[in-house]
Every structure is written in C-alpha cells, then in structure tokens.
Amino acid sequence: MGEISLPAAQAIVYSTLAVFLGIGLYGGRRTGNSKSDFLGTGQTQGALPLGLNFLATSVGTWILFSLPEIATIAGLMGVFAYSIACVLPLLVFAYLGPIIRRQNPDGFSLVAFILTRFGRGLHVMYCLVIIVYMALFLTSEFTGIGSILALLADIESPVPVVVIAVVTTIYTAYGGLQSSIFTDAIQAALSAVMIVLAGITIATSVRFDSQAVQDSGLLNSTKLGWELMYIMPAAVTFANMYHQGFWQRTFAARDDRTLLNSSIIGSVTTLPVLILIGVTGLIAVWAGTWKEPQPGYNAFFTLFKVLPTWVVGLTIILSVSLVCCSIDTLQCALVSSVSELFQNRLSIWWCRVITVTINAPTLYLSLAQIDILQLFLVADLLACATILPVVLGLVPQSRRYFRGWEALCGSIGGLLSVIAFGALYYGNIEAGIKLLYLSDGLYVDDESVLGAFLVAPSGSILTTVIACAIRMVTGER
C-alpha cells in the first residue's frame, strides 16, 4: 500500500491551506465594508467562473464516500442515478433562476421571493429550515475531511480540521461571497484535474479480470437501480432548492444567458467527475480490495492498498481542495440565510461575527461523529414534502388562488402524506412515523422509500389544492 508519513501529510495539508488562504484574501480584496458585496456579487459573474462555481458547490468530500458506496450496492445504475441527480439541479436553477431574479431583482436567494410572495410567517419557517440544512451540510464536510485524513495518513487529531475551519473563516469573514466565488473557481478546476489524474492512475495501476466483473453483477440492471433513477434525482433536486449557495450563484450571473451557459458548463464538468469517483467503487469490488462486510463508504480508500504513494499525497490535496470548496460556500450561505432571517437588517460586522461563530457548533457535532448521512436522508425527504408549494408560487396566476396559508398547509400535508402512506404500507402508524425519518436507510428491499419519495411531493400538491379549494368555496379573501 502507498503510505505517507504523518509529517509529510501534515505538510501537504497546511501548505495547501496556506495557498488557499492567500487566494481567498486576494479574491475578497474589493469587498471592504460593503454588505451588498459581502453577501452577494450583483449580476457580475461570467459563464466560466460561475460554471466552475456550480461544480464546486455540487461536490465536496462526501463524493469520496457516497458515490463509491452506492456503486457497491446498486452498481453502475446507482452511480449514474446519483451523478445525474447532482447535475439535474443545475438545469433547474437555469430555468427557475431567471423567473425569481425578475421578481426580486435586488435579492440573492429564494427566501427573498418567499417573503414578498407569501409573507413573513412562511419566510421565517423556510429561513430556519435552510439554516438547519446548511449547518448539517457544513457538519458533514468537517466530519468527512476528518475521516479522510484518518484513513489516508492516520491523522486522528482534530487539529487539521480546526485549522481548515479557521483558514476558510478568515477569508470568508474578510471577503464574503466575493472570496468564496473567486477561490471556488480555482479550487474546482484544480479538483477536476486531480480527479482525472487519479482516475487514470487507478485505471492503469489496479488489476482485475473479466470474470470478477461478471460475477459481481454490478453492471446488471436491478430493481433498486431503477428505483434510484427516480429517488436520487427527486431527493437531490428538491433538497438543493434549500441550498443557499446555489441561489447566491444563480443571482450572481451577469444575465439569463450567462446563467444558462454557466449551468451547462457546471453540468458537463460535474457529471464526468462524479461518475469517475463512483466507478472507483466498482473497481474496488472487482479488484478485491473491498469485500463485504466492509462498509461501502470506505470502498474508494481500499484502493490505496495497490496504488503508489504519490497518489495518497495527491488525494490529500484533492480532499483539502474539495472541503474548502464546500466549506467556504456553506459559511457564506449560512451567513446569508441568517441575514435573510432578519430581513437583511444586520450590519456587515454582525455578518462577520456570524461567519466566525457558526463554525463552533458544527465543528462540535462533527467531532461527536453523528450519523450525518442519515440526517441528510431525512432532510431530502422533508424537502420533497415542502418545497413544491413555494415553486408553484412562481406561477403568476397562482396569486389569485393561494397565499402563505395554503403553502403552509401544502408543506404540512406533504409530511403527513408520508406518514399516511407508511401506515397503510406497513399496517401501523408507528411504522409510518418511522418512514418519515427513514429509519431503515435508503437502500431497502421493499418499495417503502420509493413510495415515500413519490407520495411526499404529490401529497404536498394535493393538500395545497384542497386548501385553495376550501378558501374559494368559503369565500374567504
């Protein structure tokens, strides 16, 4: 196995962070004390840097765990389902972004539209949901990089994770979104190049025979694979509607054509990167470096048993780059969401204080080793159940039929419909409640998860329509 010494690994981590710190400070040099420049960039970004930012926002250290894991469970179909799921939201933002930008030309997020369309009550609820979702995402990235450094270089100390948090906080507190967008473009390009290099190295260094490929069955069509073709795109697309980082970049595009072009650039760069990472899970199975009952999320890292040492160093740089991409984006997104909660009345200095303080609870949770992946599954299902009433509000004619109360009913109805489906499917209410938080995980043998992700959005729409009909029948204005 390619092994790297502890001092060498630490030197790579801290040298990479030093470079990113310099880049981040340079990128935020023009922000100064302008809150508008700190929380947004105006409509100033071109297609290429914004496309690379969409790539950076779509990836993170999670791709080194989740994609190879799904490959060991659902094979190539699972890899394609997950990869397409992560690309589809970029096209959705290209479609919805111009509509929301026209209705809120001075805003920089979905929740600004919710305030003007549905009122303060729903605005507060969605702000809180987004803050929790972004905080979970940030916690998962801290957890992910800690696990990666432990697997690759036996770095068990939390010090490098804390240093990563400090470095990203310094340049995001200094330059805000300006720093994040500038660094993300560079980090995303660097990460893509390194992933291609790693993919070529794995393809030329790892050996397996055709019989192992055939015996694994991972290239075959499976029931789970077909279910994931719906579940993953639905889950990720609806969940990313809550991702403030995507909305900030959507509003940063110079114009609608630029937004479309940047979405295309982001899509055509993100898709092959994710597929390359996912296929490493297949290769680990075929080469025999990963075998059950090993956890699937370690499949990528088992390949280092047969890879040269320099690949370990390259992967450490890649991991630090990926985590910085994600963390600075999430830090800016969290600050923006908190500012939105207070209707953007906070001063830039309060925004900078929030940038610093948000790391403490997320770092603590990451050290506690909470099952963040399970929490994300729940967040995905909740997003499926609650986001569509807001999206329906984009239709101009909808103003005649439903407002904040109907949208709230639709959100609650989406959640209750999952419980009702689970109760009918399993025959008791307790099982229905457990289905709402996916207690058995995503990869189950029955159709309960598929049903939940089908019922959640449809139940949400149905409840919204019923609430509208009741108001119209009763004549309430």
UniProtKB/TrEMBL annotation:
A Pfam family assignment: SSF
GO molecular function terms noted in the UniProt entry: spermidine transmembrane transporter activity
Keyword Transmembrane helix: yes
Domain of life the protein comes from: Eukaryota
Transmembrane intervals: 6-26, 47-67, 73-96, 124-153, 159-177, 189-208, 228-247, 259-287, 307-327, 348-367, 373-395, 407-429, 449-470
A single Gene Ontology CC term: plasma membrane
InterPro entries noted in UniProt: Na/Glc_symporter_sf (IPR038377), Na/solute_symporter (IPR001734), Sodium:Solute_Symporter (IPR050277)
Name this polypeptide is given: Sodium:solute symporter
Organism, scientific name: Dimargaris cristalligena
